[in-house]
Amino acid sequence: MIEKNFAVTIRDAGPMDQALLRRAVVELQECERTFQKTRLPGEQIADAYLAWIENQIGEGGALLIAEIDRRFVGFVAGWIEHSDTITETPDSNRFGYISDICVLPDYRGQRIATDLLSAIEERLGRAGITRIRICSLAANASARASYERAGFEPYEITYEKSVTHNCASE
After folding, report:
1. How many domains, the chain?
2. Burial class of residue 102 (count of CB atoms within 10 Å of its CB; 0-12, 13-18, 19+)
C-alpha cells in the first residue's frame, strides 16, 4: 500500500471552483479519448457536460473537490438514480451513481481516487443508498483497478461492435 505524506481535504464544490472543474472535465475527457476514439474533444464538451453534472446532482447528490494544501487535485460527482427494472430488487432500483471521478495527472497513483470514492459513498449513504454504481471504459485498466481496490465489483458489462454498411445497390 502507498503511504501518503500529505493530507487530502475533500469538500463540496462551489461557484469559485468552476474554472478548476472545467479544466478537470477537459483532462478527464482527453484521457478517455486515449482509450476510446468516439469521445469528443474535452474543450468541445466541457461547459455543457459540467452544467449537466450540476443539474443531475439534485437532492442527495454531490460534486466534491479534493485538495492538497488548498490546491485542486481532483473531483467526484454522484447522485441518486431510480429505475423500475422488473428483474431487480427494490434496493437495486434506487442506487447511487458515480458519474465522474478525476484525479489530475500529477497526483495519480496516490490513492486520492480512493478518498474521493469513500467521500461520495458516505454522502450518498446519508440519503439511504445501499448500492452504488460506477462505470469505466473497458480499456481504462487503472480506473477499474482503483474502483476494485475501493470495493466495487463488476455488475454488468456492455459490449460494443462497430457495424459497417455497404450502401451499394444489390
Report:
1. 1
2. buried
